[in-house]
């Protein structure tokens, strides 16, 4: 015998062992009444046992049901064989057919979570179709077969009111009381189910925040049931207090799960029907019993749907809450989640982990790389995090690590060393990400104080990246506070300067050996007191806070205004303007620049557009499209800082440009460093082979000028040629 067959046999024996006593016990517990002088079950609980066992065991229970029902009917009713098997068929035939249809509609797991998904189908087939079909089969059987006198009323030989009450009782048995047996039996047969039931249904209802409400509701239910069932023999109870039971259970939906609510409702209904003489005192007529059964059945359906809807709303609220606490791209907890976490774990340590060159890689590979890197770093850090420690998403190139316990400096240093020792693989490329970190203790911080601290940690982590080290905010909090405050103030001054046009254009000449050429436009910014803000300070702030496109367009407008007032006869280049990297990453940047020149009536050939080597050789489609659009509109394109990027010969072969500007790092020591001289000479040879013009920056001595001209450099720029002068001159 196979293992599956042995398992099925064991289940069948278990089902039979449970069925035999339960059928007799449930019959004894079934509520009764007298209608038209005949004894009637207000609900026949053996039917509830049969349905509960079917839900638990499935098709394995069919044979045990046949045996148990045959023994049960033989002992209780002493039925002959024909009548007994007809009775069994009337009960099991519709039930088996309903189970088969439910399997078709709901799939092979139709028996599991009976009050969950597919509730409507189960209520229809199990709660209404099955009892109705049973009663219909019993009615027609009674027309053809004679049954003992004690059963003839159930097989059609009775009044219409008796049939209606019997029909409602069978419906109540399937719809209400099935789960009075189902849940206890499931918990008795499976300890895992019992633990899950208690954990999901009861433990959550008796948490510290909800315990008072749950106990109060149970006490209110107990008092109401006691009042309704106590033999007071007063019309006030049956006339006015019965509706309270529905109100109490409607309120209980908020405090208990669907299964607990339905189980308590089934028990309460059984108690009320069993003691119906008390709670229906003075109105305990056949019509009243019919009405109360109909009301109980109707409210059961409403209660189940209301419970499910409430649980779904709670589930949806939990999902929305989780989404509000999670960054949608990285799927990491966000700053809102950090605020909640700090409250739950006071006295922890906030650690800002910065990836120094992630911004550069993101420009080349896109936002997907940034998301992947942050997820990968979180995975690498997970084994080193203890209970209550998490990684949180921060904007830009940073992550926030919340640590607890002693020695945060040593632990964070170990994490940074681990990350710096590994490369991150992306589409076959191995990326070397540089990490640095800073930490500080979060002691009773308000949200505003925490955000201020995060700003300080971000600046300190940025400084620490250069040495791949870990810095402690507590050791230099005063200095960091001063620096971050200065950066905030500087940002305000820069934004005000851009908005109020508080900057001036300077021009530095770029000449060939004959002293002819053009000038590069440089910008000098001033604060509200008239003091100059040097480019080394405001350029990084402009780039970091996404002011690049706005700033570059302001510079172009100012230059074009000057050109319109000072037209020239020739259409040759007069100036060059350097665009920041993020400007060309804006989708409409190229079209906006062309439209701006058309508006001012200035020819594109008048101004050379300078872009960095990283922009010109990047894989960012938007930047390349903007450069191609500008070049196609008549602008000449100069590649600034040439030689310092990540160019390769394939990219240089495909590069579309007109001028290359050799970075000053190759010029300053060209007279003493033979390697620099060879590099500059090779760049000139490559440029002339492509038909490009060459500009050398940082030319400061006549010796540098002569050597560069001998190498074939076309234009020179530096203090030897001329210092920047205000454009108004």
Quick synopsis:
One of its GO terms (molecular function) is cyclic-guanylate-specific phosphodiesterase activity. This protein has 29 helices and 19 strands.
Would you write up a description of this structure?
The chain crosses the membrane at residues 61-79, 85-106, 118-140, 160-182, 202-226, 232-251, 263-283, 289-311. With 729 residues, the chain is an alpha/beta fold. 59% of the residues lie in helices and 13% in strands. It has an 8-stranded mixed barrel with strand order 10-11-13-14-15-16-17-18, surrounded by 5 helices. A 5-stranded mixed sheet has the order 4-5-3-8-9, with helices on both faces. The chain has a two-stranded antiparallel ribbon with strand order 1-2. Helix 1 (3-29) runs antiparallel to helix 2 (45-57), helix 3 (62-77) packs antiparallel against helix 4 and helix 24 (589-600) runs parallel beside helix 26 (621-632). The longest helix is centred in the middle third of the chain and has 39 residues, at 286-324. It is elongated. The chain starts with a helix and ends with a strand.
């Amino acid at each position: 015998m196979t293992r599956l067959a042995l398992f099925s046999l064991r289940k069948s024996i278990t089902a039979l062992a449970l069925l035999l006593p339960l059928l007799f016990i449930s019959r004894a517990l079934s509520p009764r009444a007298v209608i038209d002088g005949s004894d009637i079950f207000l609900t026949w609980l053996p039917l509830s046992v049969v349905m509960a066992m079917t839900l638990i065991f499935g098709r394995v229970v069919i044979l045990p049901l046949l045996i148990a029902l045959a023994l049960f009917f033989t002992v209780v009713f002493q039925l002959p064989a024909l009548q007994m098997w007809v009775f069994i068929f009337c009960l099991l035939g519709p039930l088996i057919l309903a189970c088969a249809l439910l399997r078709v509609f709901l799939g092979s797991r139709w028996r599991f979570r009976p009050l969950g998904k597919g509730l409507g189908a189960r209520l229809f087939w199990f709660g209404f179709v099955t009892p109705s079909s049973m009663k219909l089969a019993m009615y027609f059987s009674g027309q053809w077969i004679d049954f003992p006198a004690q059963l003839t009323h159930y097989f059609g030989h009775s009044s219409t009111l008796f049939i209606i009450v019997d029909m409602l009782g069978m419906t109540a048995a399937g719809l209400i009381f099935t789960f009075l047996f189902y849940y206890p039996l499931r918990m008795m047969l499976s300890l895992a189910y019992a633990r899950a039931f208690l954990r999901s249904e009861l433990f959550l209802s008796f948490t510290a925040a909800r315990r008072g409400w749950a106990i109060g509701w149970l006490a209110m239910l107990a008092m109401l049931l006691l009042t309704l069932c106590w033999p007071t023999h007063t019309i006030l109870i049956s006339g006015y207090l019965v509706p309270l039971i529905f109100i109490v259970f409607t309120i209980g939906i908020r405090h208990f799960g669907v299964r607990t609510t339905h189980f308590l409702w089934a028990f309460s209904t059984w108690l009320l029907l069993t003691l119906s003489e008390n709670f229906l005192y003075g109105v305990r007529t056949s019509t009243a019993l019919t009405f109360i059964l109909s009301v109980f059945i109707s409210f059961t359906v409403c209660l189940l749907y209301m419970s499910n809807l409430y649980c779904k709303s709670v589930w949806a609220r939990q999902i929305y809450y989780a989404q509000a606490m999670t960054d949608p791209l990285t799927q990491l907890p966000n700053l809102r989640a950090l605020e909640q976490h700090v409250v739950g774990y006071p006295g922890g340590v906030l650690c800002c982990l910065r990836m120094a060159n992630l911004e550069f890689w993101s420009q080349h590979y896109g936002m997907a790389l940034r998301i992947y890197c942050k997820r990968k770093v979180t995975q690498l850090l997970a084994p080193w995090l203890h209970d209550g420690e998490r990684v949180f998403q921060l904007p830009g190139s940073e992550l926030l690590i919340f640590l607890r316990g002693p020695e945060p400096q040593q632990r964070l240093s170990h994490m940074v060393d681990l990350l710096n020792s590994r490369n991150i693989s992306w589409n076959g490329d191995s990326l070397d990400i540089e990490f640095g970190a800073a930490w500080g203790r979060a002691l009773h911080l308000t949200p505003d104080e925490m955000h201020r601290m995060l700003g300080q940690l971000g600046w300190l982590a940025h400084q620490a990246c250069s040495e791949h080290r870990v810095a402690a905010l507590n050791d230099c909090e005063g200095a960091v506070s001063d620096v971050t405050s200065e950066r905030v103030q500087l940002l305000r001054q820069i934004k005000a300067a851009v908005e109020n046009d508080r900057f001036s254009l300077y021009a530095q000449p770029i000449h060939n050996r004959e002293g002819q050429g053009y000038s590069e436009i440089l910008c000098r910014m001033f604060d509200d007191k008239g003091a100059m803000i040097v480019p080394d300070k405001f350029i990084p702030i402009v780039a970091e806070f996404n002011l690049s496109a706005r700033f570059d367009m302001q510079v172009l407008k100012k230059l074009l205004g000057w050109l319109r007032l000072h037209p020239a006869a020739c259409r040759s280049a007069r100036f060059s303007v350097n665009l920041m990297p993020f400007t060309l990453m804006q989708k409409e940047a190229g079209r906006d620049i062309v439209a701006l020149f058309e508006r001012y009536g200035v020819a594109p050939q008048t101004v050379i557009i300078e872009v960095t080597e990283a922009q010109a050789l990047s894989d960012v489609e938007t930047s390349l499209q903007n450069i191609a659009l500008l070049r196609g509109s008549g602008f000449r394109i100069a590649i600034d800082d040439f030689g310092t990027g990540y160019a390769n010969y394939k990219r240089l072969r495909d590069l579309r440009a007109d001028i290359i500007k050799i970075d000053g790092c190759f010029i300053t020591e060209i007279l003493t460093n033979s390697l620099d001289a060879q590099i500059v000479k090779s760049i000139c040879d490559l440029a002339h082979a492509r038909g490009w013009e060459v500009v050398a920056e940082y030319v400061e001595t006549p010796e540098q000028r002569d050597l560069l001209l001998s190498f074939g450099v076309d234009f020179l720029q530096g203090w030897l040629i001329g210092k920047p002068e205000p454009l108004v001159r």
